[in-house]
Structure formats: C-alpha cells, structure tokens
Design goal:
Layout: E1 16-20, H1 46-59, E2 63-67, H2 77-86, E3 90-95, H3 108-115, E4 118-122, H4 128-135, H5 139-152, E5 164-168, H6 179-194, E6 201-203, H7 210-218, H8 222-231, E7 246-249, E8 255-256, H9 259-263, H10 298-301
Parallel strand pairs: 1-2, 1-7, 2-3, 3-4, 4-5, 5-6
Antiparallel strand pairs: 7-8
C-alpha cells in the first residue's frame, strides 16, 4: 500500500506490549485484518513466550495485551498469563467469547477470573442477525452465553473489579458511530433482552487490509473507503494513536508499531539494524523512533479516532450516531 501523505510521527515511551500468539482461530470473520481461521498454523513457541516474559520483567511495561487469532488456542497461553501476573503486569485477553465453549476451554472463564485478566470481547452488534452475518451462524447466541458466564463470575458487575469490555466494528465501509451513544444503546439492549452487563464499549474502524480490504476491492469500494478515511482525518488524534505507546509482537517474536503493520509485514525498524526481535528490547529504548506509516493509518485518525482502546479522547470531529442495525 502506497503512502498517501500521512503525517510523520514518532514513538513515545512504550507502555503496552501487544503479543499475537498465533493466527489460528475457531472463527473466520469477514472483517478480520489477521485473516485468522481454523486452518492457520502459525503459533508462538515456548521460547518466544519466555522472551516476552523476560522483556516484561525488565523493561517496565505494565500492560500485556494478548491477541490472535484466538490466543487461548496457544498451548502456552495460560502459563504466559500466570507468570505475567506474578510480575504485577496487567493482562488483557482479546477474546471472541465463543472460544469459551471450545473443547479444552471449558474452565477458561474461571481461569481468567482467578488471574484478574481484563477481557476485551468482540461483539459487533446487539442484534443476532448482524453478528451472525459478520461472524458466522450461531455466533451471537454463543457470545451471549459467554457473556452470561462471565457475568456470573463478576465480570461487568459494579464493584467486582473484573472488567469485560466489548468491541464494535461497522458491518461495512463506514466510520463507527459516536462511541458514548452506541455504548448506551448496547447496555440498554443487552440488559433488557439478555440480562447481560459489561463495562465499556470500544468502537473500532475496519482497516482496509487483508480480508476486509479484499472484500472492498471485490465490491469496487476500496477507493471510496480510503477517500472516506482520508477525508475524515483529524490532526488532534495524532498524539493519541496506539502506535505511540504500544509495541506489537508477532508469533515469531518480531516487532511492529501496531498489529495492522504486522499484517502488512511493515516491521518496526530501529536505525540501521532492520527489523528487531522482542528479545532485543532488553536494554533498548524505542522512544523517539520513527513510526512506519502508510495510507491505512488514516483508519486510526478518521473522525473520533480508533485504537485498541476504542475512540481517541482527543477527537474533535463529530460522527453521526446510529444504532448498530443501521450498519448492515
């Protein structure tokens, strides 16, 4: 993907290590920028997991953000969490909810609760029709069962300290609705219809890469979507984009400025050294390092902004508020 004039930006101090444990998943979602699915075989080894833990022990990053695929399918997933928590690191699990019903994962919810793991769960709508269209037949009902199970363990309940946040993606080539308004709609509908509670809703823009990008190209919508993202760019979002303080690690242990760059094979480059491995972070400092930017980066700065933690607080451009059903 060619550069379309995205502003040059540099890294701040690294605060979050986002680790992709592999691309295998029990689902194949149409918006997935990882192209994850049941037939993917890429998987982080025990040796690389050990390197990740060594970095967490000495580099001062206090948040471990675990992603995939379905990261829970990696055989070292639980050991990584236990040892990270022993180091006092806050752990996030980017969970698709349906994994809680997979063979071998029957006690996963209880494990996450015992370890105090924050669950970040994708639920692209509160409507079964829209969710199943994007993620597969029966996914919505399984997701609701998963949320109920987490609620029973205290997740999403006031005062419990156990946090479950939901993630919304638009169904097609449009910007996400205003986050706060959509969160209220989610909480109202999920509570009234399913008795489900959660903490926050994160609205994320779909990135024009991999599976979603291919879909746009096949429908002749790619250029229009890129025009939408670039036209809605907001400079105020630049200081809060996630690549400023997050380091992305692929399943082999190599570093990227973000998960999207990882999928485009745009490695984090430190001076003349070329791409670097997570083990090389020990004793190193990425502060001030240039960030690899391309045209997909407009997906993070358009409108209210988009990051792994949802809309960016610095955003000033209003985005039309719609319920998720309107994005089918």
């Amino acid at each position: 993907m060619r550069r379309y004039g995205f502003p040059a930006i540099r890294r701040h101090r690294a605060e979050t290590l986002q680790v992709n444990l592999g691309y295998r998943c029990n689902q194949s979602c149409v918006h997935c920028h990882v192209n994850a699915g049941p037939n993917r075989t890429e998987e982080m080894s025990y040796e690389t997991v050990a390197d990740v833990l060594s970095v967490l022990a000495v580099c001062g990053m206090k948040t471990l953000d675990i992603t995939g695929g379905a990261p829970e399918l990696n055989p070292h997933f639980r050991d990584l969490i236990v040892r990270a928590r022993e180091l006092g690191v806050h752990v996030l699990d980017r969970c698709n909810l349906t994994i809680l019903e997979e063979p071998g994962c029957e006690d996963l919810a209880e494990f996450l609760a015992r370890q105090g793991v924050e669950v970040v769960a994708s639920l692209p709508c509160y409507s079964s029709e829209n969710v199943d269209r994007q993620r597969g037949k029966g996914v919505f009902e399984a997701s609701i069962r998963g949320l109920r199970r987490l609620n029973a363990l205290g997740y999403g309940r006031a005062g419990s300290g156990r946090v479950v946040n939901l993630v919304y993606n638009p169904q097609g080539p449009s910007l996400p609705p205003e986050q706060a308004g959509l969160e209220l709609a989610y909480k109202r509908e999920l509570k009234a219809n399913f008795g489900v509670e959660f903490n926050q809703l994160y609205t994320l823009a779909n990135m024009p890469i991999q599976r979603f990008g291919s879909t746009l190209i096949s429908k002749g919508q790619f250029n229009d979507y890129m025009g939408l993202l670039k036209g809605a760019h907001c400079d105020d979002n630049l200081d809060s984009v996630m690549c400023r303080t997050l380091v992305s690690v692929d399943w082999q242990g190599y570093l990227y400025d973000c998960d999207f760059n990882q999928m485009l094979e745009l490695p984090l480059v430190l001076g003349a050294r070329g791409r670097i491995h997570v083990s090389e972070l020990i004793g190193g400092d990425l502060t001030g390092n240039p960030i690899e930017v391309r045209d997909h980066c407009f997906g993070c700065t358009a409108g209210q902004g988009s990051s792994c933690g949802g809309a960016l607080d610095a955003a000033t451009q209003p985005v039309e508020t719609k319920v998720c059903n309107a994005h089918a």
